[in-house]
Amino acid sequence: MKKVSRRKLLKASAVAGAAVATSGFAQTFFSRPARLLGPARGSRVVIIGGGWGGISTARHLRRRNPNIEVVLIEQNPSFISCPMSNLYLGGVKDLDFISFDYTNVVKAGVTFVNERALEVNRAGRYVRTTSGLVHYNYLVVSPGIDYMYEAIQGYSEVRQFLPVGFKPFEHIALKRKLDRFEGGDLVMSIPRPPYRCPPGPYERAAMLAYYLKSNEIKGKVIVLDANPGPISKAPGFTAAFSDLYKNYLEYIPQAEVTAIDYAKKTVKTGLGEFEFDLANIIPPMKAGEIVRASGLGDRWASVQLPTFLSERDDRIYVIGDIVGNTPYPKSGQVAYNVGKIVSEHIAHRIAGRRLAEIPNPLPDNICYSFVDSEESIWVAHKHDWDAAARQVRQQATVDNQRSKQNGGLALEWARGLWSDMFGPEV
Q: Is residue 376 part of a domain?
């Protein structure tokens, strides 16, 4: 049985309490109800979603032109980062490492509406929220992903017991389950792409195995992968699984989960049934529901390449993990970079430039994956526009050799972007 000190438990409780307190502070002092905003004054840009893409867009818009009215609609009162969250699940970092509030975003001149965006009325150019309407001149839609629970038989009925941990705040519930885990089979599944953060589940598998090993828990992580092998950084993850976690991790490819029986603690795959004592089942994913409610796409939204304008409306930009017709990885780095690109594009349009005159740079990407408490591997992507073929071309560079140096670079990368997104202006 895992031994948890009283000091560790008190610290965990304090961190969780601080997150709640911070959330309440942000909601009380910085949120403005939609019903009080009134008509757009001058040039109003409304952003749906306060994640990596939405925050990047908001901050860079204000820096480019402080006269632009920027309104951010976000249903969560504070921010928890999905990138780097596996360090939290693995017990390497506390919750406060990946948690931020919107204080400095508001201080930068962004109006924060802490409500749920329900629908986009494209004809009337407004967003309907839980308290009213927010009119816009330009709209940025970046709500993140939803889960396709219906793709796995029996999952919808028991999803409240099985936090996935690929959306903010779900990590807290998943971590609580891990902290109570006393041993046995910890079954996690990986769906077929596309899904948020291609290497994310493989990093999680490594960090869950690290958690068991470092806490001397008698158990094993059983990874049921719907794919024939890791779809990102395969040599690096495969080496880590075999070298570091030989007795703590069993990787099974081509084992797509098709059904779950929570009462019997079993999941069904094409390779047979697997019993679990604890499960982290990652279902297939789709764009947030507002994309379909607003007629901006079906499973995913599409953009007018090489821009990030919606195929359905040239006043609307769609960014982040909801985009489906590009080779861009669904990563925090891509969302952040696209936020910068879109902010520049909108600023040019507000200044009176025609669409044909505005440059359309493409986002680069880098994604670090920890395989233990200090070592990381990485993949980077460069993207170019092939005008003749009207396609985005991708070139990848990979470092599959885990090292502490890469781990240090990963932490430096995260802190640098978080500082730009949530830090004070200097």
A: no
Which domain CATH number covers 222?
3.50.50.60
Same domain, 158 and 136: no
* Domain final residue pick, 328, 362, 396: 362
Query: Percent of the chain beyond pLDDT 70?
Result: 93
CA distance 306 to 191: 28
Do 362 and 385 form a contact (C-beta atoms < 8 A)? yes
CB atoms within 10 A of CB 145: 22
Q: Using CB atoms within 10 Å of the CB of residue 53, give its burial: 0 to 12 exposed, 13 to 18 middle, 19+ buried.
A: buried
Predicted confidence at residue 5, as pLDDT, reads 43
Nearest alpha-carbon partner for 49 in 94, 114, 133, 136 = 114
The C-alpha atoms of residue 397 and residue 409 are separated, in whole angstroms, by 16
Tell me the C-alpha distance between 381 and 363, whole Å.
9
What residue type is 426 in one-letter code?
V
Give per-residue pLDDT as tens, 21-34. Answer: 444 444 445 788 88
Longest dimension (CA), the chain: 66
User: Residues 43, 350: contact at Cβ < 8 Å?
Assistant: yes
- Same domain? For 322 and 246 the reply is no
* pLDDT per residue as tens digits for the range 186-205: 999 999 999 999 999 999 99
Question: What is the torsional sign of CA 161, 102, 70, 424?
Answer: negative
Residue 98 lies in a domain: yes
* Structure confidence at residue 290 as a pLDDT band (50, 70, 90): very high
Sign of the torsion formed by the C-alpha atoms of 326, 327, 329 and 333: negative
